[in-house]
Amino acid sequence: MTRGSCLCGGVRFEVSGPFTLFGFDHCSRCRKASGSAFATEILCKTADFRWMAGESLIRTYEAPVRDTPPGYRRIFCSGCGSPVPFVDGDTVNIPAGSLDDDPSIRPQGHIFVAYKAPWFEITDGLPQFPRKPE
Ligand SMILES: [Zn+2]
pLDDT digits over 39-54, tens only? Predict the structure, then answer.
């Protein structure tokens, strides 16, 4: 069991199964939304995910569609503004920084590297993808 929560603790969740993917997203929207060089995204199956508290605190910001749908969504706690997990069909996209326990899985790569911040240098040996890998 892996637990997670937002900064104020109002939103809490648990993941009972294994994580399926862990990566760093350098796209410009993820940089804006996270306020950092990249967003850390860790994925699990929706069947393995459970909200423990604070679902009513969750708000969604829908950014305009750029080229083709889907647009970009920022899911956050209305109490503290922290990013919180996003349930998208059979997958849940979790901001890795919201986890309270070690997810065991380790980062697997960098995506949207073509859009990364010029002031950030990737120095690990993980695979880098210009956009999103197929
Ligand atoms: Zn909160």
Answer: 999 999 999 999 999 9
